[in-house]
Every structure is written in C-alpha cells, then in structure tokens.
Amino acid sequence: MKNIAVIGAGTMGNGIAHTFAQYGFHVMLIDISEKALQSGLATIARNLDRMVEKGTLTEDRKQQTLDNISTHTDLQKGTGGAGLVVEAATENLELKLDIFKKLDKLCAPQTILATNTSSISITKIASATRRPGQVIGMHFMNPVPIMKLVEIIRGYSTSDETTKTVVALAEKLDKIPVEVNDYPGFVANRILMPMINESIETLYNGVAGVKAIDTVMKLGMAHPMGPLQLADFIGLDVCLSILHVMYDGFKNPKYAPCPLLVNMVTAGKLGIKSGEGFYDYTTGKKAEKVAEMFS
Ligand SMILES: NC(=O)c1ccc[n+]([C@@H]2O[C@H](COP(=O)([O-])OP(=O)(O)OC[C@H]3O[C@@H](n4cnc5c(N)ncnc54)[C@H](O)[C@@H]3O)[C@@H](O)[C@H]2O)c1
C-alpha cells in the first residue's frame, strides 16, 4: 500500500499526513478549505525544519517528505488510487457519516476507511458504508509525528484482515499500535477524561488550586504535565464533548461533566486555543511553551 488519503488538514490531519509522508507513502491531503490546506502544509514544513535543527531528520528526507504530499479540495480526486483513507475532519457525527457515505461510493472496493475520531462510535460510522468490515478506528495522538501510540479500534464488524493491515501500517510508521474494542471513549479517553474531570471537580470543590493540583499529579505520579494543563492543551470543549459521549453511551453518572467545565466552555474559555483556560496563554510564547512540552 503506497497511496494514503488524509481527510482534514487541521491539527491531527497535518500530523498524520506528515508522518505517512516521512515514511515514504504518497499522501493526498484533502480539506474543504484551501486555507486549511495551506496552513497545514506550512505547519508540516515548520515541524520538519525543527526535526532538521534537532538533527533527527536530514535536509534530503525533509524535502522528500514534502514532495510526497499533494493537496486537494475535491474528495474524488484526492481519494483516487488510495489504499487507505484516514479521516481526520472535525469531530461531528453527521459530518463523519456524510464523509463515509461518500467515501464508500468513491473508493475502490478494497480501500480501507479509517477514522481518527476521539469518541464517535466506529460501528456507527461503519453503518454509513456497505463495507463495515473495512472500517476501523486509527486514533493517533497529538502531536502525531512525536507520539508513539496509535489506538486501533475495531468496530463491531471490522474484519481481522483490516485490523492486521492497519496494525502493520502503524508499525511501518514506527508507532506502537494497541488494539481495543469499540465502546465509548475507547481506552485512552475512557481513562483520561474521568481523571481530567475529577481534577476539575477537585478544583471546583475548593480542595486545592490549579497549580497545586497539577503539581501533585506531575511530581507525585510522574505525569509530564498536570491534568488541568493537559485539558487546556486538548481544548476544554473537546474534553466536554468526549465526556458527553461517555455519559450518553454508558448512562452512568460517573461520567457527568463537572459544572465548572460546562461553565468555562459556555464562557468561551477553551484553553490554549482561546488564550485562556485553567491557565492564561494571552502571550503567544506561553502557549508555544506548553505545546513544546509534548515534543
Ligand atoms: N486535537 C486532538 O488532540 C485530537 C487527538 C486525537 C483525535 N482527534 C480527532 O481528530 C479529528 C480532527 O481533529 P483536529 O483537532 O485535527 O480538528 P481541526 O479542527 O484542527 O481540523 C479539522 C479540519 O477538518 C476540515 N474539514 C471539515 N469538514 C471537512 C470535510 N467535509 N472534508 C474535508 N475536510 C473537512 C476543516 O476544514 C479542518 O481543517 C477529530 O475527529 C478529533 O476528535 C483530535
């Protein structure tokens, strides 16, 4: 398999395109927005430059990586000849169902359709296609070129063959794939989000302040960053939406989002992307520093 289509050139899509291209795949990066494609390409070039500066990539390999990527706003042209499509468009059920319905019509019968969704059911997404055996979750972590884990999520009907192919592809990218089943939150967010929610609840109950909570978790549990800072990094709106998926999916009050999280999202305090969350990022430098803690 040489040709990979990636749908969505945002945070995750450009990282996924970067990684496949760096490992020699031909990547068709697709977005509805030409501006998003240009900004995605600029991010890839910047991240490759950083790797060259750090000595982890040669200038030649950087150029080959960029040459391996083409950009498209047309889904049909962008997916032509793709053996695998990785969808990393906006987290919205209706949008993803629509994309998969179209992909099912446009792509060759053998093409595998993967989604990078953080929380939407793979089985539900697969139901929009006539090839549920070839639909799978390929959940990369942010930032994709750095993080080793790929959570491979098997929908109810995902075939062994599809799983084997996708696991082998993840390994070719020098990643560590871990197979999990399709239940709300999968594994990563099912464990991470209740921890983040509980840390917000701890703050809300006045047990300790933001810095104290994060310091306990950093120094006491050897986490690279505290849960409140991590929530700012992920986006408080994203955390809230994943908690809603788990709450709705399990009907268990333990996943109910903390009222403070709900209030902050309503007030537009979304973390790094809005400039303020549990921390203040109004100077661009601070936000960059937090992002660098992950690289
Ligand atoms: N951000 C994270 O840390 C993270 C981590 C793991 C998984 N995810 C998942 O990855 C996916 C993408 O998240 P993101 O953070 O990169 O989002 P983003 O908002 O940064 O990017 C989404 C991109 O999708 C494009 N898009 C929207 N509709 C489209 C369509 N019909 N066709 C093509 N492109 C379209 C948008 O123009 C945008 O450029 C989501 O499903 C999200 O849950 C995100």
UniProtKB/TrEMBL annotation:
Domain 3-hydroxyacyl-CoA dehydrogenase C-terminal: from-to ranges: 185-281
Example GO molecular function: oxidoreductase activity, acting on the CH-OH group of donors, NAD or NADP as acceptor
Gene3D superfamilies from the UniProt entry: N-(1-d-carboxylethyl)-l-norvaline Dehydrogenase, domain 2 (1.10.1040.10), NAD(P)-binding Rossmann-like Domain (3.40.50.720)
GO biological process: fatty acid metabolic process
Alphabetically ordered keywords of this record: NAD, Oxidoreductase
InterPro entries for the chain: 3-OHacyl-CoA_DH, 3-OHacyl-CoA_DH_CS, 3-OHacyl-CoA_DH_NAD-bd, 3HC_DH_C, 6-PGluconate_DH-like_C_sf, 6PGD_dom2, NAD(P)-bd_dom_sf
Site (Important for catalytic activity): H139
Chain positions recorded as NAD(+) binding sites: G8, A9, G10, T11, M12, G13, D31, E91, K96, S118, N142, K273
Residue ranges annotated for the 3-hydroxyacyl-CoA dehydrogenase NAD binding domain, each copy included: 3-182
Similarity remark: Belongs to the 3-hydroxyacyl-CoA dehydrogenase family.
Name this polypeptide is given: 3-hydroxybutyryl-CoA dehydrogenase
Taxonomic lineage of the native organism: Bacteria, Pseudomonadati, Bacteroidota, Flavobacteriia, Flavobacteriales
